[in-house]
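Please decode residue identities from the backbone states below.
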């Protein structure tokens, strides 16, 4: 847990947030500034600044599994996923997250 990280605070319950889905090591919540009718973020509970820092293959798998589970839960079959890695690629929050974007509202 990184004390200065907003997503650490959200994922670990320090900032109360409604989770759309939660697994053992990940949470999914709505993006505060949605760029599509449905815009969620899949976030590991443990802090990794970027995808480049993640070396836990089980967690990689669990993150993608959470994408599948939350879209299945919301009955969304068509969606985009995005991971911005590094400032040059547009990453603004340096806690690894997968964007899920869809035309359907949750
Ligand atoms: P990125 O550019 O990939 O780092 O994306 C960061 C995303 O986090 C943006 O889409 C923001 O709207 C979103 N975001 C920032 N702060 C919050 C927050 N407190 N709760 C939910 N989403 C957030």
């Amino acid at each position: 847990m990184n004390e200065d990280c907003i997503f650490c605070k959200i994922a670990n319950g320090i900032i109360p947030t409604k989770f759309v889905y939660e697994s053992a090591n990940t949470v999914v919540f709505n993006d505060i500034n949605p760029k599509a009718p449905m815009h969620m973020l899949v976030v590991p509970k443990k802090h990794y600044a970027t995808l480049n820092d993640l070396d836990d293959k089980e967690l990689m798998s669990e993150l993608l599994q959470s994408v599948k589970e939350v879209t299945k839960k919301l009955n969304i079959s068509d969606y985009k996923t995005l991971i911005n890695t590094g400032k040059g690629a547009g990453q603004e929050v340096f806690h690894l997250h997968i964007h899920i974007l869809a035309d359907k509202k949750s």
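Observation: Residues 83 and 98 are 5 Å apart (CA to CA).
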